[in-house]
Specification:
Strand order of the largest sheet: 1-2-3-4-5
Distance between the termini: 23 Å
Largest sheet: 5 strands, antiparallel
Order of helices and strands: HEEEEEHH
Number of strands: 5
Shape: globular
Helix content: 25-40%
Length: 175
C-alpha cells in the first residue's frame, strides 16, 4: 500500500537515517510500500525517510525504467563534477540546477543483506547521489543558494498547509 510522501521542510528529511540491521519481512514490507509510493507519485527514486521512516534504504530508477533497492549505501568514489536539473517527490513541482558528479562508485546491500558494488554514470549516478543525499539527511535544495532555498521553502509550507486542510476535510467527511 502506498504511503503519503513527506513534504520538505519536514525534520525527518533533514535527519540522517539509521542503518538497516533487520533484513526480515518487515524490511520487505517497507520496500514494497516505498515502491508503491514511488510508482503512485511517478518518481524515479525514493528514500525511506520520504515516507517518514528513518532507515537507510532507497529505490533507484535505471534509464531502462526498471528499479532496484539500495540498503546502507556508501559512495566510495565520485568524479566529473556536473550540474544537472533536479526535482524531488518531497519538493513537488520545483526544479533547479544542482551540483553532482557524472560518475560514482557505490557499495550497498540488497534486501537479503548481500553486499554489492556498482559503478554508475550519467542519469543513474545522478539518481544514486540524490537518494543517498536523502539518506544522509539532505534534500537537493540544500545545494541551492539561500534565496532560492527560502523561496522554495515558502511554497512548500503553503503546500503542507493545503495538504493538512485536505486531510482534515476528508476526516470530517468520514465522521
Amino acid at each position: 500500500m502506498a504511503r503519503d510522501i513527506v513534504i520538505w521542510p519536514n525534520k525527518v528529511l533533514n535527519t540522517p537515517t539509521k542503518p538497516v540491521t533487520d533484513f526480515s519481512e518487515k524490511l520487505t514490507q517497507l520496500l514494497d510500500e516505498m515502491h508503491e509510493s514511488m510508482k503512485e507519485a511517478e518518481g524515479i527514486g525514493i528514500a525511506a525517510n520520504q515516507i517518514g521512516v528513518s532507515l537507510r534504504c532507497s529505490w533507484v530508477g535505471r534509464e531502462d525504467g526498471t528499479f532496484f533497492e539500495i540498503i546502507n549505501p556508501q559512495i566510495l568514489e565520485k568524479s566529473g563534477p556536473v550540474t544537472l536539473e533536479e526535482g524531488c517527490l518531497s519538493v513537488p513541482d520545483q526544479y533547479e540546477k544542482t551540483p553532482r558528479f557524472h560518475k560514482v562508485k557505490v557499495k550497498y546491500q540488497d534486501r537479503a543483506g548481500e553486499w554489492h558494488e556498482l559503478e554508475a554514470e550519467g542519469r543513474l549516478a545522478h539518481v544514486l547521489q540524490h537518494e543517498i543525499d536523502h539518506l544522509d539527511g539532505h534534500v537537493f535544495v540544500d545545494h541551492l543558494s539561500n534565496l532560492k532555498r527560502s523561496l522554495i521553502m515558502e511554497k512548500m509550507k503553503k503546500l503542507q498547509k493545503a495538504l493538512s486542510r485536505r486531510k482534515d476535510e476528508k476526516k470530517d467527511e468520514k465522521e
